[in-house]
Amino acid sequence: TIYPQQPTMASIIDNNSNFCSLEEELKEEARILKQILNKQSEKMEVGKMLTEEEQKAIDAKSIFVGNVDFGTTIEELEAHFKGCGEIKRTTIPKDKMTNRQKNFAYIEFECADSVENATVMNGSIFRDRKIVVTSKRTNKPGMGTQRGRGGFRGGRGCPQTVVVKYVYVNAPAPRGRGGYRGGRGRFNPY
């Protein structure tokens, strides 16, 4: 039996492209990869971290819209607030786990005067819901990110309170298990 010959890599390159050798194709791929990396670095600069002053300036021109219907689109929200001023950006955050949009949104206007116009719409009806409109607050770095042990004694970052269950006035406190005869003794500093 005669088996057909499998085409070699050199014949595939020669037949399917304008390159004559593997070296030329590798150089072309390297050039294309460099272009892709340059485009990615430009995108990274666009999404760079803002300074605190820049963030405050953006937040001064932004509003928070609460109690937004889950099926709301950005276009519907912008149409509701278009009379307040020119809208620069509208954001409806999504849940990271379920990828379902949350029930609030942020709208950034071109000028800060539009924020005052938009806050007048607090309590207006949007998609059969009474929405909450307030000016956006600036997040402070590190707020709400307490980790590990904190508070009084080994808590989880929450403030701790000491609760006294019993106060023994005229009698000594009951001794617990063990006592002086072994077993589980208890430390008694007094």
From TrEMBL:
Pfam families: RRM_1. The keyword RNA-binding applies. InterPro entries: Nucleotide-bd_a/b_plait_sf, RBD_domain_sf, RRM_dom. It comes from the Eukaryota. GO terms for molecular function: poly(A) binding. Residues 61-138 form the RRM domain. CDD domains: RRM_II_PABPs (cd12306). One of its GO terms (cellular component) is nucleus. Keywords: RNA-binding. This is RRM domain-containing protein. It comes from Caenorhabditis latens.
